[in-house]
Amino acid sequence: MGQDLADAVLDALDEPVFLVDLNGGIAFSNRAAESLFGSARRGGTLLDLVEQPHEALIQYLRRCSGTAQTLPGAATLRDVSGELIRFRLRGARTRMEGTPYIFVRCLHSQRDQFPALAAKIRELNAEIHQRRRIQATLEESLRNNEVLLRELHHRVKNNLQMLIGLMAAAQRETSSDEARSILEEVVQRITAIGSFQRLMHESQEIRTISSAPFVQAICDATATTIGDRLRIEVRADDGELSHEVGMPLALILNELLTNAAKHAGGSIGGSVRVGLFSGDQGWELVVHDNGPGLPPDPRNRRSSGLGLVKGLCRQLGASLKAENADGARFVIRFGRQEQT
């Protein structure tokens, strides 16, 4: 009655179980073992189910025969269909009716012991795969957009250069001094815009531009149009300016330098100092020439020429201070722009 109960318990297990003698002969196999390996295996040996060589399984059985503690092992067994299956083994010495045997459980290595966890892992893997596909698509779209943006910058730069050439040609051909002066101012402003556009085209950043190269580029561009009438000294702090700030600031700087060239550039040793400084409250642009200074009459040409500067300062939300301090000194203060 006790043996029948033990056999019933073993038959209830869903993994193959063998009771083998010290040589590996199968004395008992449960229902799961007979279903997987065939009822004919009873009476055979466990070694019959193993691919050559047998030494690893023999050594494992010997170790199990020396202890009642469960020992782990592994073996690849051939099922009744001829398929090879990898098992994790759990074996220990036991006795039945005074005869020593080895009790061996065969746990399927590929059997999922934690189905809920494994299902969640599969779900996460699928989600990761999908996210990677989406990321790859977005990165490809970003690269395409960057290429299109740089191509746009390149075309705008070329168009500005063509426009500057047309204006310069018209300036040379006109006989009117007033028209020539107006065209010169237009060329200078377009040149400043073109310099800023070139910096945007060459920059690795999509939304910002470095402050020091920006100031130097605008001063250099303006110097090419005003000739050697004025010596320009440049000092600028390192930082980042948004493109929305850069364009009006380039026009402001060009206008102030052009005015300095007209009024300070006519004297011997005429010079202008340009500084762009970064502080806790924002940025400060200073343009200080050593000319005769600002005239008292607001209707003077120099004063009226500041109309564009004032309008651009309003666009920036900047303050403008103009004063006489051993020449004309202009200070434009504007806050940092939020980068989006």
Structure commentary:
The strands form three sheets. A five-stranded antiparallel β-sheet has the order 2-1-5-4-3, covered by helices on one side. A five-stranded mixed β-sheet has the order 7-9-10-12-11, with helices on one face. A two-stranded antiparallel sheet has the order 6-8. The two termini are 82 Å apart. It has helices spanning 2-12, 31-37, 55-65, 115-173, 177-202, 211-226, 243-263, 301-304, 307-316; strands spanning 17-20, 26-29, 71-78, 84-96, 99-108, 208-210, 231-236, 240-242, 271-279, 282-289, 319-324, 328-334. The chain folds into two domains: 2-108, 2-Layer Sandwich (Beta-Lactamase); 124-334, Heat Shock Protein 90. The protein is of the alpha+beta class and 340 residues long. Strand 3 and strand 4 form a beta hairpin. The longest helix is centred in the middle third of the chain and has 59 residues, at 115-173. The mean pLDDT is 82. It has nine helices and twelve strands.
* CATH class type of the largest domain: Alpha Beta
> Mind summarizing the main beta sheet?
5 strands, antiparallel
Straight-line N-to-C gap:
82 Å
Biggest sheet strand order reads: 2-1-5-4-3
Estimate the helix proportion, in percent. 40-55%
Keywords: ATP-binding, Kinase, Nucleotide-binding, Phosphoprotein, Transferase
InterPro entries: HATPase_C_sf, HATPase_dom, His_kinase_dom, PAS, PAS-like_dom_sf, PAS_fold, Sig_transdc_His_kin_sub2_dim/P
Protein name: histidine kinase
Enzyme class: transferase
